[in-house]
Amino acid sequence: MSRKKVATRDLFLKKTALLATLFTVYGMFLFTPAAATLQQLQSGMEAPDFSLHQVSGEKRSFANLKGEKLTILLVWSTWDKKSEQALARMQKLYLKYRDQGLAVVAINADGQKISDADLARIRSTVERLKLTYPVLVDNGLDYFHDLGIIALPTTVIVDKERVIRYELSGYPLVGAEEMADFVTASLEGAKPAIVAKKGHQPAKSALRFYNMGRNTLKSGRMAESSEMWFKKAIEADPTFVLPHISLGKFYLQRGDKALAEAQFREALGKEPTHVIALCESALLLFEDGRLAEGQSLLESALKADESYTPCYYYAGFAYGKQDKPEQALRMFDEAEKINPLDYNLYVYKGRMFEGQKKPREAAAAYRKALETILQIH
């Protein structure tokens, strides 16, 4: 091999390594504690407020648009087929129950920057489906991240105080019917048959401590104190699972894998089918070389919730470690279909290619991750 080719190859490898290091460091500053449908919230907690523009240009907040009894927040995209199904179903529910206290607000999350072409596609969808409820645009994806969306479309039903009463991720067939039944039963005065599926309602003091932990994480400088707040939340309500998940993620970012594994184990002891605890535990097993055990946990996680994106790219990463490239790429493709805005799927794809000694493919995956974060086009 000529000196020039060797130099070019070495430079390419250095760039790939630099991108990998960038994401390792970047990951230390990102934190996404999670629940099954939303990453940081669950039923019984208050959804964040919003201030977004309608497609027509007017700025609107929850107070302007809320229903007297329930408000359906549907976060959707033009590039997802299930979003259209959800939009159409919400139109039917809106027409049927708008005079009984129901409001519907669709929030488009097509991307970080909404171009004129994007707006044209959004307007076209609204006109084609003949939607008569408000359609807002989440330019910058601030509300997308505030909610902690993990798949599109996502439906969040709140009461007039913005307290979450029901969540649905990905619009699966059975889940869509249960969601519609919940709306019907709630507005017609009947007791919904699925209320038992909503899960544990945490104590108010535990919620307060948990939210303090989330807020300190966002501050950056005070991130370390979030550990104390999450522990206080657990003390205030030992059955509250989210603080364990948050602590586990916090310890992972800090490099304390044993402590992280213990927190995920605690979460699974309280909620054995918690998809995030299952997936994160599986990843720890993969990193430790215990591939069969990790694969078993992932299978359990996907049975519990087939719309949780990280399960798919963790599985892709694991298949790559097992030298099963076709299965690996299929899992990464599935993750991208569910949520192409999750940059981590490209990071894990890059890590897989690095492990396979494929620097060009690794660099391409890392670049895609960077473009997803920074929206470099």
Describe what this molecule looks like in 3D.
The protein is α/β, with parallel strands linked by helices and 377 residues long. It has two domains: 8-36 and 241-374, Serine Threonine Protein Phosphatase 5, Tetratricopeptide repeat, CATH 1.25.40; 51-198, Glutaredoxin. Helices cover 58% and strands 10% of the residues. It has a seven-stranded mixed beta sheet with strand order 2-1-5-4-3-6-7. The longest helix has 25 residues, at 3-27. It is globular and about 55 Å long. 42% of the residues are buried.
Fill in the keyword field for this structure.
377 residues; alpha/beta; Serine Threonine Protein Phosphatase 5, Tetratricopeptide repeat; Glutaredoxin; 7-stranded mixed sheet; 10% strand; globular; oxidoreductase activity; antioxidant activity; Redoxin domain-containing protein; Thioredoxin_ResA/DsbE_sf; TPR_rpt
